[in-house]
Amino acid sequence: MQSEIVKEKMYYLRYALFHPFDGFYEIKYRKKGSTLIATIILILYGIIKCISYQYTGFIMNFNAIFEMNSVSIFISALSLIILFTVSNWTVTTLFNGKGNMRDIYIVSCYSLLPMVLINAFTVFASNFIIKEEVIILKSIQGIGAAWFVFVLLAGLCIIHEYSFAVNIRTLLATAVAAFIIVFLGILFFSLLERMYYFISSVAQEMIRRIH
Amino acid sequence: MKKKILLILLVFMFASAPVIALAEEADGTSYAFDGYTYDWWKNAVESPAAFQVDRVISEDNMEGIKVQGMNDVCTSKDGRIFLVDTLENRVDIVDRDGNFIKSLKVIRDSRDKIVIDKTGAQLVLNAPEGVFFQEKNNELYIANTGACKIVVLDGTNYTMKRVIEKPENMAGVSEFKPSKLVVDNAGRIYVVVQSSYEGILELNPDGTFSRYFGVNSPAINFLDYFWKTISTDKQKEQMKKTFAPAFNNVAIDSEGFVYAVTYDAAAEHMVFRLNSGGKNVLREEGNTLVTGDIHIRHRTDKSQFVDIAVTDYGTYAVIDKLKGRIFLYDFDGELLNAFGSLGDTKESFRMPSGIAWLGDHLVVTDSILKCAYILKPTDFGAAALQASEKYYYGQWDDALALFQDILKMNANYEIAYVGIGKNYLMKDEYKKAMYYFKLGNNRTFYSKAYNGYRGEVLQKHFGIVAAIFLIFITSIIISEVRYHKKEGGYHAE
After folding, report:
1. Which residues of chain A neighbour B451 with C-beta distances below 8 Å?
2. Residues facing B152 on adjacent strands
3. What does the pLDDT look like over B174-198, one tens digit per residue?
């Protein structure tokens, strides 16, 4: 029973990638999506980011491998998607979007899958190419990126029941919202740091006075 | 217990700190200079300095002639050093060991009489700023800046040959105030006039004006550009005009290319290699552009090159007066080494003003310290210069041995890795070449080596490759056939 549900959800994952309009309709209204699968894809995306940083072939790899920080790459890859999910949700709730946070999360993670698979292939293939063939791999990567963008746009259109123009407008608003979130986050953490130093210096002062 | 161990560790750390500071360089000698270079990621990486101070030429060498500050230097092939003392109005001549030969102030003719010019005054040097020795005609050119003249002397007994005054046919608005000069083998004189925005002044051998030479384009300032696009013509008239930055010094190589430097912060390029048309043909193929230090906070922190010295094999040294550093670049514009500093300690500079090659030694003048340093190459520097020379002349095997030596002294020297890699690539030893190109961070040549290597592997295992390819093709055909059968069956229904 359990395995059959998973099988069905995997089927709809594949269906959504090739027929995003129908697929995400099914996922939203007939509950064929799975946050678990979405999370697995997201983690895969983080891992493939780390792998491509280190294991892309020398000819295509311009990264300073000696100062690689896999944790920071992983977290920044994940937080970008989560930031998008949150900020898109905050905007679309104001603009009559029908999708809830779960839908947005599933759409954005599902649409990552083609890019993840294609990047995995290009990372592997980049070890066996010469400089003249870099352009081929770059265009394959471009296909992956275009696929990602297309599935994402289509999925967002469906789950929010938006027309294309409105969708683009909300995406621009999403970028602004994401910027504000980041700004507030930095503000919050810097205030927290100041508060910490204030309290710790007061405490130090007290300890010295008491002695 | 733990605290004790910590204490002991701390003591050890402090005790070993001065040892670390005095640590010897890789080739076993300790140098006064700290060298560095830039790697592919544009990080400054440590490197032994290429030169060390060999000898100081100061007033002690001059047999009673006063020295107030040396502003320019040039050398002859036979090892004479010509030092320009602007404040004392002298050109001092010493040999390569620093022994005094002659000091010029009053110019004499071949009968040892003092030359009298048209107005009846003695011809004396008046605040000279530049000097150049031309090997071919054995002539010594002195830019007699204060008197707005160029004095040409015989190269052996320093007697008067001729005086070049302001040419009558000179065009443009530049003053004829020669500051630095070089002369090519055909006798054409290239004169730098400080703060002239028209370029280098080129004079014919007979002293007539030929043309302005070389373009020093200013860097584009986008803010200025923006204001200029939206302002009216009347406003534009009142704005400050952007003039081309002046050249500040020149040198000439054996092929007749004129090298020029500028330290104007507004200039786009810092070092120029001008072809006969006056176009900049300097190669900048290295990890960084030929601009000296690259990690700067502000435009005014850019390295300020006051002089340049070129070898026959295209390697050139430029000296920066802002930080007192000497940068060595090879003909490709690859930074070989940077070293030197400003300061009050022995062997550091205060206001470096001129640089010249003396064989493989460098002569550097300093206008505040009132002395000239003769720098001799360290083991690393000598190997690096020689390798650069051999490489330039295509003597690959000699270069290979030198590069391997260099790597023992300086593992951060990417040029050596690439050089060794190229050598292996020419011998079709692709695997080794790939290894070295990877260490040298040269992706273009790595790609070439890998292409050869891949071809070799494919040839060796041709059977397997062909089999995989055949299986792939047949599987596609089979699946196509099956698909069409299915389709056909569907349509038939």
Report:
1. 130
2. B141, B162
3. 888 999 999 999 999 999 998 888 8
